[in-house]
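FAQ
Q: What does a multi-component entry look like?
A: The components come first, one per line:
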Amino acid sequence: MSRARVEQHPASGMTLVVMVGLSIAFLLFIAFLNVIKSGDVLSEANLLYAALVFYAGAGALYLGFGVTGTGSYVKFASLATWAGLIVNTAAVAHRWYEAGHPPFASLYEMLLSFVWVLAALTLIAEKQYGVQVIGTVTMPVAIVGVVLMQLLRSEVRPLVPALQSTWLHVHVTLAMLAYAACALSFALAMMFLIQDKMKTEGFLVGTTTFTVGIYAAILTRFEGWGGFNVIAWDPENKSEVFIAKGVRLFVTIPDLGWLMLLVFAAVLAPLALSVLARVQKNEIFIGVANRAVFVSVLLQSLALLFFILRVRGGLYPSLDAEGLYPTALGTSPFILSGLVGGIFANLLYLLLLWRRADLERLLPDADTLDRITYKTICIAFPLLTLMIAAGAYWANRAWGSYWNWDPKETWAAITWLVYAGYLHMRITRGWRGRRAAYFAILGFGVVMFTFFGVTYLLNGLHSYA
Amino acid sequence: MVPSLRSAVRSTWKTLSSIKTGVVLIILVVIFSAAGTVILQRPMTDADDMARAYSPAMLRLLDATGLTDVYHTRWFLSLMALVSLSIIAASVDRFPNAWRYFARPYKSPDDGFRRVLPVQAHIAITEEEQGLTAAERAFRKMRLKSERIVCPDRFSLFAERNRISEMAVYLVHASLILIFFGTIVDGLYGWRGFLMLTPGTAGNQVEIRNGSSRSLPFSIRCDGAGEETYTDGTPKRWWSKLAVVDGDREVSSKEIVVNDPLVYEGVRFYQASYGGTGKLDRLLLNAIPKNGTVKAQQISLGPNQIVSLDADTKVQVAEFIPDYVVQDGHVYARSHEVVNPAVHLIVTSAKSEKAVNFWLPEIPGIAENSSSRYTFEPKDLKTGVFTGLEVSHEPGQWAVWVGVVLMAIGLTFVFYVVHVRYWVVPVADARGNLALWIGGSANRNRDAFEQTFKRFVEQIENELKPKFEEAAEQPSAVLPKITTAGR
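Then the predicted structure of the entire assembly, as tokens:
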């Protein structure tokens, strides 16, 4: 079918490939010139830059494939992904060698490994299961990951005593694999819902609820009179500023809070409109809501831009200490992820809204997707179990007890219970299709909360990541 | 009365064992344990922080419902007990059926079964025995052991693999119960506490979380403790040399570090923290006489130690203040951290019975440094350190670890070991044409199994082909048997 499409548009078929190829070559060439000047060719930053370029190329091609359905794009896209993966592997190896331990100790290192796993899984899903458009979802995530890495503190930091254990590597490797499998099951469940002819309005409600949730969490940092609290940064020591042990110093960026509030209203609008449409049974509101999503994407991008600009430059007062302090993006990784994640989710919704028919044509049929979703969860669940078990064993050695009811532990257990519930409903009650897909999506939501939400919103022993 | 009681028991059992109850219980556990991560919890959070976070009325309500210590309240434990009961009931309820399935495998499929089995195929054959031997060869090629089942009305082949996988789910449930059992034992008989030791001392009084203390039947002596730091000052390693003294002899010793505890009689000692006590350990001073009759000398002072400087003069440490501040003519300690130390020395003279307060550094208004016959220059200061040991006794943890291992094995079987079954039955249709009915089933991963099944059928067809030609040339009934014997 895609071949037919190529024949229809023979000209557009290669244009994008050539353009992306040329951009990759150009960017690498520019980088190469800079590298030759500095002399250090195989540094980690360079490798990551190359990975970013390749992933970006792959992402563009996958998106092009998602939008036009040109089959040859996907071939070049997976080539670019392969290249990115190779460079990424080199970066991981470099890091491992430099640090003397596998790259799991800080948020930066976790992201490095996560992006690697994601790229590898994309290629596996493509080759093994024939889910070719999966790159449309995963590559942008990989790009966001690599960009985030550029902002986080990347120097090799020594391990604190509690982390000096083989179990760190076992526990984190299992967690990464389990979470990546959960992410894959989520993406597959979403695709199932598309193939299962779920109404686009349903996705609208889902996406906007997700975005509203993000901005509600971000607004916990809202300070009276429109300020926005972020953690202060000490550029000399390259660390966050602490006022007491474990207590970080917050500085208030004036007026940014108003912008966040405005964007919150903007992302709330499409949700309210779609609810209104359902209550009033009036389709007109859906059209307005879709336009509101478009507006909210623009406003969200604006919020991201202003956030980055204000955080990177300027000194800000604090409520808890005298004087003015700088801040840095590295102190607010979760806010940044939230902002980027919101934009990304809404863009995916718009892609679905505008190109639904093409997407449906490209995806495997609903039954296959349903089965593969179940299979990925069958992989994720034992990995989750082992991850928790390894964590418990390690906690028993380091903290003196295998179970401390620490928020991270508790939420890991909740994740496990949700997927256990899914498996029981599926196996004994024969839950298939849409209900199972909702369950898979819920499971991944809990995973994300365990990974990001617990670290950002709740305090506990598990303060490393 | 009796039947109604019986029916009540039966309906309770039915409710308890139903999957719906299980799911409702799981949802309740999820809600309450999530609540425990959002609401501040008692033993971990200071009472002051609690009071700051919630209004008094709110705090009273939370305390009354146990929401400030969710995981240790009776109702949460009862909920966990109910979950265990539900798992047991559900397993017991379904076990007999599964056991029958496991212990008496269905080997000879009847007509009804053959009609409804979703994965099946027919191959035309000329003769029963020939078809069955071909199937047997195909089985062997797939490394399956087949057996011939003889029934009064039919004659068939059966082969299977990994029957044990049918029972694996009970292994998982049993392991879960075992883990719960371990945690209940620990909840009832286990304890956790803290023991702080300074090098050179021994102790056996463990401070338990709830404020009480527990004395161990043996004591722990600390023979040394230390910290190594990275060049940037972050801690790299904390260690303590510990010895267990039982009665009056040393029975065990170990240098423990974070992640590597000492275990004695089921009690585990973990390196949890390390720090300064803010107390003086040793002070090195240069004592310089003001009149030149005696030479300057270096002295070393510990707490409660008196050192003679000459025949007449003695010196001792009266106070050591790790972080001093002067206010209204008094010296106060601001903290226990050695950041701004001050030493109060008393220099006494035996003859004149005069005591002089010498302060380092000299604090105006209090210090009488000028009237001392000696001046002192600080050379070196060592302050005391402590090692913080987390002590725990968890007698149920073995059940937990056994449970974890069993669960890993069980889950492997549940998800990755597939029970496959094949049946081969020679059948004749209404017109008397002979055919080989081949059926297969797998308890999971059915789409992959369908591919395997298709290959199996092709394999039988291949096995049949050459023999079929031979058989056509020499129509002899014993031929297949000879071939089998010859192989």
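Q: Is there any commentary attached?
A: Sometimes. For this entry: The first helix of chain A runs from residue 2 to 8.
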